[in-house]
Amino acid sequence: MFAKTSEVKVMRDPVHGYVHVQDQLIWDLINSRWVQRLRRIRQLGGAYVVYHCAEHTRFSHSLGVYEIARRMCYEVPDIDHALNEKEKMTVMAAALLHDSGHGPYSHAFESISHTSHESVTCRVIEHDPEIRAILENGYHGMAKNVADVIRHKSANPLLSQMISSQLDADRMDYLLRDAYFTGTTYGTFDLERILRTLRVENDQLMIKASGVYAVENYIMARYHMYWQVYYHPTARAYEAILRALFQRLKDSGMLEEEYVLPQFKALREGKKLSLEEYFRLDENACNYGFEMLEQCNDPILRDLSSRLLDRRLFKFTDYSPREVRRLSKVLKEKGYDPKYYLMKDEVGQRPYVPYNGEAGSIFVLMEDGSIRELSNASNIVYSLIHGPDRDEKKIFIPAL
Predict the structure, then answer these.
(1) Distance (Å, whole) CA 345 – CA 36
(2) Angle, to 10 degrees, between the axis of helix 117-127 and the axis of helix 129-138?
(3) Closest of 97, 159, 106 to residue 128, by C-alpha
(4) CA gap 103, 112 in Å, rounded
(5) How far is CA 363 from CA 95, 208, 289, 374, in A?
(6) Which range in 79-88, 97-106, 360-369 is most confidently predicted, on average pLDDT?
(7) What is the pLDDT of residues 372-390, one digit of tens each?
């Protein structure tokens, strides 16, 4: 039904060994401008200022998610039998395109633009002429079906579970990939064992009882990666300066327009970016935009831009209302406006939270044929979800 490439295309990958492509539709998507744009967006945002090798991109991650989804479709017997060829192609395309709407600096940009990358991804899939044409050439209505997988509105809920759930191709790739490129071991787990023990019952993706230990390891890997990498306070300090810079950009009234990148102007005015404006807003463009702002007449924008470019980051301390009041006074005495030089930040994460939302719970197929939610089949996971919540509140300020 779907055209094949003249030969199986393979791309070397440090996580998966090879990424395999034998469908012309997937190959065309990989070579589309929106997917190639992801080469210009780092996977981990500000984490590269902490882990100097964390320069990997959303492009390599997207290929990795596709490869895991492809393996699920053809190497996991239950999934292979549960999906027809249309559904397999749909979920593989969704895996490849799931981050196509990502802005620069990972999730930090979402708080700046007040736009989720998922919503932009669906706009790209359904409205970009090139992407839509490639998908509709596969079969009529494919663009909407792929977007529906991202929206968790797929006619077959198994497709969304494979891409975005608490045990999915997206998380499995980014944990392994981010661990590799940060040089840490926190994110490693037994991917092969998880794939071998995946099962499907009543359109629900689940794990065989013998795979529970591998899933426990996966959950702990996710927990440690969040606190050791994703929530690293130095990386958060970088993102705090980003937020401060764009807030100042919105507040500055007399700024010379020639020093403001066109995409920055739209963000400054609170306008919704067109797809073309969004396409042009990658990290290369942002770095050039910061270089331009280093020459503007606003001393705060000049300083914040140079801090980002030269890694002169804010320091951090634990949050308390009393400390906020004290530091605000000190900053004012030193000539800093606390609105831009005192940034509060709060993060929290639990490795696994069973609930009935879109991401669902992880279910375990027991040896007697019964089905249990993971925390009822694992003492370790039970202890994690019933333990105390962990969160951190920080204050970010310049070195005084």
Answers:
(1) 33
(2) 70
(3) 97
(4) 10
(5) 22, 9, 47, 5
(6) 79-88
(7) 999 999 999 998 888 887 8
